[in-house]
Amino acid sequence: MTSSTANISGSLRRTLAITLLCAVTVLTVLLYFVIRNYAAQIAQQSQDSILQASVTSMLDATKLREGVVEMDIPYVSFSMLNTATDDRVFYTVHQDDKVLSGYDDLQVPQMATDANIVFRSINYKDIPVRQATASRMLVGDGLRTQITASIAQTQDNLSVTLQRISRNAAVFGAGFFLLAALLSAWVVSSTIRPLKKLASSVTRRGPQDLSPVAMPVPTEMGSLVSSLNNFMSRLEKSLTQSEDFIAEAAHRVRTPIATVRSHAEITLQRVEKEENRQALKAMIRATDEASRAAGQLLDHAMVTFRAEQLEFQEFDLVALVEEIVLRLTPIAEMRYVELCLQGDATVMVSGDPILIQNAVRNLIDNALKYSPHESVATITVRSNPAPYVEVQDQGAGYPVQEMKQLTGRFSRGKNSHGTVGSGLGLTIAREVALAHNGELTIANTPQGGACATFSF
Amino acid sequence: MRYFLFLILVVGSPIVTAIEWEEQRIFKGANGGETLRVISSTDSSVFAPIIDSFLSAHPYLNIEYRVASSTGIYNEYRQSPDQYDLVISSAMDLQLKLVNDGYAFALDDVDHPEWAQWRQSLFGFTLEPASIVVNKSAFGNLPVPQSRQEMIEVLRANPDVFRGKIGTYDVRQSGLGYLFATQDARASDNYWRLMEIFGNLETRLYCCSGAMIEDLAQGRIAIAFNVLGSYAAARSDLAEKIEIVLPSDFPNIMMRTALIAKSTRRVRSAGLFLRYLVSSRWNDDAGQANTLPSLHLPSIKDKRSIIALEPGLMIFLDRLKRQSFIKEWENAVIH
Ligand SMILES: Nc1ncnc2c1ncn2[C@@H]1O[C@H](COP(=O)(O)OP(=O)(O)OP(=O)(O)O)[C@@H](O)[C@H]1O
Ligand SMILES: [Mg+2]
User: Fold this and answer.
1) Ligand nearest A398 Cα, by number?
2) pLDDT tens digits for A414-450?
3) Do B112 and B32 fall within a single domain?
4) Does residue B28 fall inside a structural domain?
5) Are residues B105 and B206 in the same domain?
6) Are B75 and B292 contacting, i.e. CB atoms less than 8 angstroms apart?
7) A89·B100 Cβ contact <8 A
């Protein structure tokens, strides 16, 4: 398993958050202006309606008496215009086109015949005012005359009101923005959550776990997850297939090789001619090599496969090693090597006994192969500090220059010349150790012998 | 106590208008430099203690103090607004109109109750009720009327005692008289009934409070109606002879108001003086006796009887409205 980095460009969360925030901002600004405009309109309307009441009461107070216009403006006409900011009031009354009373420089708009009141915003004495104008026809004594009354008021109170409204609208907008921002944060995180859940569930898997993702995901992620599941099942299939294939292949190769070897051995007994015997011996050797290689390949495939679905179980390491030693003793005696087992009485470990047996067998096998006759190979099993098995021989040790590569696949040292082997023994031992979260260390002892330690 | 110190011709515009100053005095500060030009409708004898106490706090100023009728001041200031720094008047309606028409300078930072100021430009600094002032000896053992209604009754019952012995403002001349009359007329129909009776009893008409009180003191009249009680009270020498009655039915209380001229170049000094006026400190400094009652008059509990500073005041200044009011008044009072 190699850890690889993804090609990352942009962030869903950020894109989503920015989009939502932009939308919220636009909405807030819009809301602010809508509220403000609406409130301003209402405020203007309320000023207008007071102006209207005032101008109407003025017109109501006009009458014709003996052909002369009299106007008795009631006090309320003006006192109703009182505001908190003491707005200024200007007025004028026209009879037809002649100024009757009031401010004679206050312009009066042209009245449409059907309009009963006209509002407008103008500047009077260089200050902005709101003006309401209404007119009325007086008829009497054969006289028809048009009376036009107009009242203008400054807009200080209105602007104070507007300021207050703007402030309130701003506060309201800020509140809305905050709420909407919180909501969008929530939306973002709940949208992203299934993705994060998927990612963490995939990350939490063991390196060998290729089972399909079973947790429920939203529709939008359905195709992603189903492609992922599809991909993983294909991967798993091809993995098992290749393991099976190697095992099968090794098995198929070993049988004919064994046949060839036995035939060659029989033939060797019968042949007397020296050069033929030589050829046959080389042939036997080659079949040994091939058989060993096939055996180790099979073991390696088995190790790889089992390491994927490691089944832990508790067992006594000492008993296991004892059994291996017992099994290898005949071979050791053939080489005049004494196998000496020492250490604790029992060392309980948890792991796959078949794999560990395989690993330890390879280490002892090496000790037998690479140490001279009449020597002792010491196997130590202890539980402290952590459970370990150490195999130490009295041979020449590992070739120092190649130490680093020796645990690699198919790597054999210079001293292996003439010994049958495939270069997979240490590799198997190391992979088993790694599968158990342990390690394999190889070193040379001060006396010169090789020392391989398999520790948990 | 009236002086005719100067008669001045003011040439302000192409139309030559004469303003008749009743008084013109210069109050000098101890190291007076800058001179504030104040025009006022208040007699200098009444105002002098206030000015003196102000100048003792601000000795680097002088105050030129001119007195005319409130209408005179109004017209004069409208004609030559750049000739004066401060306008003080008892005619609230005229003062309010000056502010409304943009003749006043706004002081934004004066801490003054809302009801006693308009647009931060017009500041009321006294509370002066319109009173019925009577000469005690003229009444003899007749009851002193405590309200307009009682006065109507007393006058109706004793027409011969009071014929020619009633004094009130000539509303055509006196701005303050017009203000009180219009406010009275607005408040109750009793006013017109009273004016009818006044007319029948050959009422004397006065331009100003001072003259009316003087005549009352001399016994030439027995009742002065709608006169400023504050003026009468300021005359401590008359305390024995007269009685000041606040009509119990509805008192009309006037605020003497001050405004700073829009075009003044002495904003700071004018502001100082105005702040001093509204602070009512002069009331303590000058002593209660001879001066005007400040805004914090404890006897006035009901703020509603104070004539409100509001645009409604301008109604009675309308040409047509004034015309018809004066006509009605003349019909009642003058025969
Ligand atoms: N005990 C040892 N003493 C000296 N050299 C050793 C010892 N064990 C291993 N080596 C060296 O390390 C090399 C790799 O060992 P490894 O067990 O992986 O392969 P192998 O023994 O050559 O072949 P096989 O797969 O049959 O075990 C050997 O070829 C040898 O050179
Ligand atoms: Mg080996």
Assistant:
1) 1
2) 888 888 888 999 999 999 999 898 999 999 999 889 9
3) yes
4) yes
5) no
6) no
7) yes
